[in-house]
């Protein structure tokens, strides 16, 4: 397994777990107060992801220092570009849906969480697609 | 799996002829990862023109000696 693929797996797992945690805290806080949780609740999620990403990337870089320092090769760049294209479309769709929700309900907090959720989902899909493309023919 | 590219190659043959050069060594010589060399040898990925030339020049042959079109 290449360094890029290992990195994509690790980040997909990290973001998946952090995303589920984010969903849980937003739902719990919203249920407790009876209204959509404020955006500030995402700070813990952001810290978790940033610290987790630093730890994951450091461990990967220490285990394969040469591969970590090398730029993506031509096949990895194509896989990354295609994955980025589809995840970008997913993010745009999520943002449009979030804006539609805001137009219908006028809930700015929900708008924030829907956009943040779209961003998380799009990033997970990007990592997943990158892994898929690195393993298939193209 | 996606559709396999219609380009065939004899990279493995030439690599083994050249003193059993490893996939990692070939990858390093042409600037790609070992996984990309594996994908090329298995016919799952068609390299860029630049990499195809680099491979051929490394083996001291022409591009058409290493790469071909399926069925030809």
What does this structure look like?
The complex is a heterodimer of chains A (138) and B (72). Chain A has 5 helices and no strands. By secondary structure, chain A is mostly helical. In chain A, helix 1 (3-33) packs antiparallel against helix 5. The mean pLDDT of chain A is 93. A two-stranded antiparallel ribbon of chain B has the order 1-2. At the A-B interface, helix 1 and helix 4 of A face helix 3 of B.
Amino-to-carboxy terminus distance of chain B: 24 Å
Shape of chain A: flat
Main sheet makeup of chain A = none
Low-confidence stretches of chain A: none
Q: How far is the N terminus from the C terminus of chain A? A: 18 Å
The most extensive interface between chains reads:
A-B, 15 and 19 residues
Cα gyration radius of chain A (Å): 17 Å
Within the largest sheet of chain B, what's the order of strands?
Answer: 1-2
The helix content of chain A is over 70%
Oligomer: heterodimer
Uncertain segments of chain B: none
Counting DSSP H or I runs of 4 or more residues, the number of helices of chain B is 5
The pLDDT mean of chain A sits at: 93
Beta-strand content bin of chain A: under 5%
Task: Describe, in short, the structure shown.
The complex is a heterodimer of chains A (138) and B (72). Chain A has 138 residues and is mainly α.
Please supply descriptive tags for the structure shown above.
heterodimer, A: 138 residues, mainly alpha, 5 helices, 86% helix, 0% strand, flat, B: 72 residues, two-stranded antiparallel sheet, 2 strands, globular
């Amino acid at each position: 397994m290449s360094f890029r693929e290992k990195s994509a797996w690790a980040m997909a797992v990290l973001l998946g777990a952090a995303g589920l945690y984010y969903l849980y805290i937003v739902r719990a806080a919203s249920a407790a107060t009876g209204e959509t949780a404020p955006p500030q609740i995402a700070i813990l999620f952001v810290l978790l992801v940033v610290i987790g990403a630093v730890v994951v990337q450091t461990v990967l870089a220490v285990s394969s220092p040469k591969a970590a320092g090398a730029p993506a090769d031509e096949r990895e760049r194509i896989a990354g570009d295609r994955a980025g294209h589809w995840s970008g479309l997913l993010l745009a769709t999520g943002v449009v849906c979030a804006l539609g929700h805001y137009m219908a309900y006028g809930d700015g907090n929900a708008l924030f969480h829907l956009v943040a959720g779209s961003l998380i989902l799009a990033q997970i899909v990007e990592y997943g697609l990158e892994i898929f493309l690195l393993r298939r023919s193209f | 799996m996606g559709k396999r590219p219609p380009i065939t190659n004899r990279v493995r043959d030439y690599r083994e002829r050249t003193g059993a050069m490893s996939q990692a060594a070939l990858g390093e010589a042409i600037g790609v990862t070992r996984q990309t060399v594996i994908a090329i040898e298995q016919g799952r990925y068609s390299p860029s023109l630049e990499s195809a030339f680099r491979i051929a020049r490394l083996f001291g042959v022409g591009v058409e000696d290493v790469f071909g079109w399926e069925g030809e």
